[in-house]
């Protein structure tokens, strides 16, 4: 058994790269997070996505308001003909 | 059924900051703060981009959900008033 353990240790020293488990959070694989250096790609993506979402939300809201007013106008003409209860 | 059918656009759109969007935006911001706390970062000062992103996502999802909720309520109200209109005898004010 000791010989087997020595063999495993030898293999560990030769192939020192961590296993390629890309999506694992195992403590043997993950690197310690370095919060001192910003992940600029992540920061840029987050800000870009936020800006895009706000733009989409504001655009959709103004489109909703315009569409509602338009339909109210159309319905206003219809309702004066005593068709609505 | 679609999330927001076309006839939902006949309803007045809710204001941008309504109870749903504000609450879910706040919840998103809180989850960003909690993420800071769990990863032992300064709670308010760290990850501003994350806080903004989560709050924005919350506002966006909250706005869509409030629109759908208002549509469902309006639909039920319309069916209710149609039923009342079709059954006037059941809904007469009690005169006797």
TrEMBL record, chain A:
The chain crosses the membrane at residues 40-58. InterPro entries: NDUFC1 (IPR026192). It is found in: Mitochondrion inner membrane. Keywords: Electron transport, Membrane, Mitochondrion, Mitochondrion inner membrane, Respiratory chain, Transit peptide, Transmembrane, Transmembrane helix, Transport. One of its GO terms (cellular component) is respiratory chain complex I. Pfam families: NADH_dh_m_C1 (PF15088). It comes from the Eukaryota. Complex I is composed of 45 different subunits. Accessory subunit of the mitochondrial membrane respiratory chain NADH dehydrogenase (Complex I), that is believed not to be involved in catalysis. Complex I functions in the transfer of electrons from NADH to the respiratory chain. The immediate electron acceptor for the enzyme is believed to be ubiquinone. Belongs to the complex I NDUFC1 subunit family. This is NADH dehydrogenase [ubiquinone] 1 subunit C1, mitochondrial. It comes from Prunella himalayana. The gene is Ndufc1.
UniProtKB/TrEMBL annotation, chain B:
The keyword Membrane applies. Signal peptide: none annotated. Keywords: Electron transport, Membrane, Mitochondrion, Mitochondrion inner membrane, Respiratory chain, Transmembrane, Transmembrane helix, Transport. It is a single-pass membrane protein. InterPro entries: NDUC2. GO terms for biological process: mitochondrial electron transport, NADH to ubiquinone. One of its GO terms (cellular component) is mitochondrial inner membrane. Coiled coil: none annotated. Its main location: mitochondrion. Belongs to the complex I NDUFC2 subunit family. This is NDUC2 dehydrogenase. It comes from Prunella himalayana.
